[in-house]
Amino acid sequence: MTAESTDPGQGQALGRPAAAAALTGDSTAEDMATLTRNSSVYVYEVPVRLWHWINAAAILVLCLTGYLIGSPPPSLEAAEATHQFFFGYIRFAHFAAGMIMTVGFFGRIYWSFVGNSHSKQLFRLPLLNRKWWSEVWDEAKWYAFLKKRPKKYVGHNPLAQIAMFFFMTVGMSFMILTGFALYSEGVGRGSLIDRIFGPLLDVVGGSQMMHQIHHLGMWAIVIFIIIHIYAAIREDIMSRKSMVSTMISGTRTFKDDDPN
Question: What is the count of structural domains for the chain?
């Protein structure tokens, strides 16, 4: 059908997305146009999904090895201490996972500039948008079981967006900076990493204090992971859209056709 068509039915169909978009938070007119034709919207692109799962694996390794570094296991009796490298393997796994997480994080920042509108949510909060704040409150009531019917969002809902921004964007930046500051000690004075991150040790009051701060950051991430998994499963079961499968397929599937 051409753009010059005067079919009234098509005109109504084209008019619905813009009207509905105002009622569904972060969705765009393009998203709503797709929603009027199908029951799902392609939201998370391949690079975003790859980053999510690789980052999840890296964080899991970092948390496990970080705990062991902070609370070292007792000596093993498999061989003499001089013939073992058990703790060295733990540290190597921690450093390797940290490097992977750092490279992936910079790749994710890059994709927020070249990807679709939903890839930007992790790094940008619309703090001056009054409607967005009202939706934050609305989602808080939903998570507190004070509301029976949640709104539908194509990307992250506003409350999840806040959590992802502070625990992932800010939190990962904090862990990368403090982690490389500690890593600079092993690399040695005068190295490039030491010149960039070493001064952070003096800012916080020394190596021991940096270890404590970095370790506390790990526990904050553990708490976030628990809440994140709970919220994702809860949304999959109780909300009006898919959640877990969306980060596998990239497609958000809705359980009803009502855009409100």
Answer: 1
